[in-house]
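Late entry, evening session. Most of the bench is empty. Finally got around to the prediction I had been postponing all week. Sequence below, unchanged from the version circulated by S.P.
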Amino acid sequence: MQSRSLTLLFACAIVALAVLVPFAQSPALTLLSKDGTRQLPIAIVSNQEFVALDDLAGVFQLAVHEEGQGAITVTYHGRTIVLTADQSLASVAGRLISLPAPPVRNGRRWLVPVEFISRALGPIYDSRIDLRKPSHLLIVGDLRVPRVTVRYDVIGTGARLTIDATPRATSTVSQDGDHLTVKFDADALDITNPPLPSQGAQGLVLAVRVADPTTLVVDLGPRFAGFRAASQPVDAAMRQVVDFIAAQTDAQAAPPQPPPTTAPAPPPELPPSFSPPVPTLRTIVVDPGHGGDDQGAQGETTKEKDLAMAVARRLKAAIESRLGVRVLLTRDDDRLVPIDDRPALANNNKADLFISLHANASMRRSASGATVYSAAFDSNAAAQATPGERVPTFGGGLREIDLVPWDLAQTRHIDESTMFAGLLERTFRDRVPLANRAVDRAPLRVLQSANMPAVLIEMGYLTNPEQEKLLSGDSFQNALVQSVYDAIVRFRDTIAGGTR
């Protein structure tokens, strides 16, 4: 037992170090399980990452046989995966799934895309498989390996370190000489951003580094005098905030000098049209439709709830990394969120934009194309949405306010929602196949209660076999995310220009 624990500790250290090394230097998947860690070599073929089937066979106890006519069978405990050379479709226990590329031969070995592990092997394997391709991590079993991100901000003469662990993992902070240690209650860490550069810390923090599989170390600088730490849950993450207090310098401690005998020159006048820039988008809520027992529309191999979740995660990552805007998901796992709770999350977080992601279905198998919806209301909605009421103010007197029923909150934002839907339709052109009626309005409950511009995107039809294959592919999902991102940028620029 002690030998196995030491093996896991050493193996986890490899995981922690591997995520800090550029991929080009070490093209491998790091597999982490309760039995230890090992490296699975990666081969790059046409800019696509592949792993060898015989390497997977040794790790996952698979039987691999090459049949006639280019067929390859992979068997695990009586469950079979059938692959075909030059085909990106695979049969997994009788169900078809898509891969980003077909298997390729390398000498006597067959290589498969790394997504084979999660899409084909995952559904038939006895333990949970979590493939984290950006980090080149493969986690097998119920290990706690949170994704950890680190952000450093200068605040006045001090600084703040914000550490998010997703899913939630608690951590404790303690000081040991010139270092702070942040210890996580986890089996290992998945670090998704590099350590801080020393030049960005202004003498308070020199670097953040991985000390062991579950511990971060903060190297303190010469200006460090003390710290305060606090943690709180934020969405699906546990956030640890460490505030650094700077030592008082001689210049700061010196008594104030008497004012000069002559008044300083007045500052230059600003142009009449100048006004400080005001951020127009701070929070966006992305709503992956359905979840849990509510699977939504279904194709031959694809469920709407899974497709919506996959695209929502890509969209969140793109917006946060490229725009610096906070993005909240109404769900971050396979669970059912009540329909009223989805806009409620956006309202309670004062979101500036609400985007609900779905896929369509039709009795006509030929139906295809994306549609963008904004909310529609009956003719009496406007009258119900704007009743005035006079209420007392703290300073005395009365003030008239508008009281809007919960299910009519969207009425105030119809024009902006319609505008955003039009921007989406324009950015979708030549990238995302569109339905005959690409922009429409409908009395959708998930939109009607949103107190901000809101749209619902039907990405395509899962009941159309050709479109189902398209929707499940990386190329389509990346194109759709890029299109939504471009529309958000245009929307931001438009409302910043004074139309909001």
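Two things to note before I forget:
The two ends are 64 Å apart (CA to CA).
The mean pLDDT is 82.
Will write this up properly tomorrow.
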